[in-house]
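Recall that a protein's primary structure is simply its ordered list of amino acids. Everything else, from secondary elements to tertiary packing, is in principle encoded there. The following example makes that idea concrete.
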Amino acid sequence: EPRSILVVGFGAGVTAGAFVLHPGVARVVICEIEPLIPPVMARYFARENYNVLRDRRVEMVYDDARHYILTTQEKFDIITSDPIHPWVKGAATLYTREYFELARRRLNPGGLIAQWVPLYETDLGTVKSEMATFFDVFPDGTIWGNPSDGEGYDTVLLAQAGTTKIHLDQMQQRLDRPDHAPVAKSLREVEFPSALDLLATYAGQGSKLREWLKNAPINHDRSLRLQYLAGMALDSQRGRFIYDELLRYREFPEELFLAPEPHKEALRKALSNRGAISNQAVAQ
């Protein structure tokens, strides 16, 4: 039952707009460093972002996200960090261990943090560094992929201030409720017709990736090597390869998903099919 949301980075407003569909959300704070962006995006992407800037629950804060998170006393149920690529000047500071530690201190008990990690215009070493840094602060965090056509375009890292348990049937029951009809419609528009389809994007867990990430450097404020490492692969399109490498370490997390055994088996099958699609795409 999340009530308060902090969105780091406005962009087209789509991430922030997704939250206003949820009837239980009472407050959405959007932190954006460039004042020119939101008014323009409100004009051109109003349909996609559900007119988020006109929602009475939304507060727009024009500030550097690091400064805002450091100085605010407010805590949130959800913090979503959707920065641009770390090779863009200044963006790498939103991928550091110190940043994630700041964000963790601004989470309410049981709160969630989501971090965008691109797989396009990057390389394997960069992705490993980004993920290793996040999991250094949130060791039980999870990875959720974008396996459209097996491409592996980007991922979202998700972690919780507490133990994460995902109730498949409860999620579906909520989506079936009349007050969540706009949420369900929004998910269908991006090809997630059910809770099972959404959870089938599961791509791994930090605690299971220690071998894969063992030599990955941690990104710190004082050594922003990531900013330069990421720029070396600016024109690279290796998303499929990186995603396939990641899926090689994926195991079905029995302790993460809670559901009757027939529904768990359906999720296992869906995850297996996702992996098969990815492998086929890489082979092609």
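The first strand starts at residue 4 and ends at 8. The chain has twelve helices and ten strands.
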